[in-house]
Backbone:
């Protein structure tokens, strides 16, 4: 009688600014249930949290970092007030913060969990998956929101936020070798008319922002359909929690991630439970 090995598990964490704090709740449940993660991928805020977790931080430590983001003074420390040429913010302070968390010389190759971060090369118009090299510049690149944060030069690439083309990179962990993929999408529902009413943005940019949001949502659906993750988690977050202004709702956002992960536990356990295979002996 032989015990079949469990499938390798990949977790893909999507972009979404403050809404991405729900990933911490998902990670907390997986830790609590002793569900191993063999491969991690992420974009934007999902990329930051994936990198921190892959480097050795646990969900409790991530939650402590999230609690700091409730404080305006902490967020202001991450902002560079010197205006760069290609965005409103340079990202140098964020780089220092990340280096303090994971180490300035940390490399993908040395992480205890295999990690892939996505970005977009705006010179060539292509998606770039980063799985080797220095970690901090890669994290900077995956969350370099176009027009807001300076693009990041890595090799011959000029990189911005990976959410432009692949906001929930389930295909990345699949290609890395994951046999069972859990994708976490924290984006708001673009089909809900109330979404647009809750977004307080200048009228001159409203239609452009709507168009961009709808495009990214459609791309995400297409990419998930192609990757076919075994589980897609969409935490139930209020439409009033936005990518930028939601950091003071960290507890609520994390709780939504916990609820979403707990909802799939029965089916996830079935998928991971090693089956028994009988064969001849002697």
Residues:
């Amino acid at each position: 009688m032989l015990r079949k090995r469990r499938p390798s598990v990949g977790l893909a964490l999507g972009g979404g600014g403050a809404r991405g704090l729900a990933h911490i709740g998902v990670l907390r449940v997986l830790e609590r249930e002793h569900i191993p993660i063999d491969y991690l991928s992420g974009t934007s805020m999902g990329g930051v949290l994936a990198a921190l977790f892959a480097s050795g931080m646990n969900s409790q430590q991530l939650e402590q970092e999230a609690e700091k983001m409730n404080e305006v003074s902490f967020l202001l420390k991450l902002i560079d007030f010197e205006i760069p040429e290609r965005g409103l913010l340079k990202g140098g302070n964020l780089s220092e913060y990340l280096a303090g968390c994971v180490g300035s010389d940390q490399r993908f190759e040395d992480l205890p969990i295999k990690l892939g971060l996505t970005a977009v090369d705006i010179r060539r118009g292509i998606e770039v998956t980063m799985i080797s090299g220095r970690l901090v510049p890669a994290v900077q690149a995956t969350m370099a929101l176009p027009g807001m944060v300076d693009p990041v030069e890595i090799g011959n690439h000029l990189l911005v936020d990976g959410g432009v083309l692949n906001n929930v990179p389930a295909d990345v962990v699949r290609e890395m070798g994951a046999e069972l993929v859990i994708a976490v999408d924290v984006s708001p529902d673009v089909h809900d008319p109330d979404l647009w009413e809750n977004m307080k943005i200048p009228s001159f940019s409203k239609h452009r922002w709507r168009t961009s949001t709808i495009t990214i949502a459609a791309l995400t659906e297409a990419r998930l359909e192609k990757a076919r993750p075994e589980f897609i988690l969409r935490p139930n977050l209020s439409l009033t929690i936005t990518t930028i202004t939601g950091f003071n709702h960290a507890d609520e956002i994390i709780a939504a991630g916990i609820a979403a992960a707990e909802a799939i536990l029965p089916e996830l356990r079935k998928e991971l439970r090693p089956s028994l295979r009988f064969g001849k002996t002697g």
Q: What stands out?
A: Residues 70 and 248 are 5 Å apart (CA to CA). The chain is about 40% helix and 15% strand.
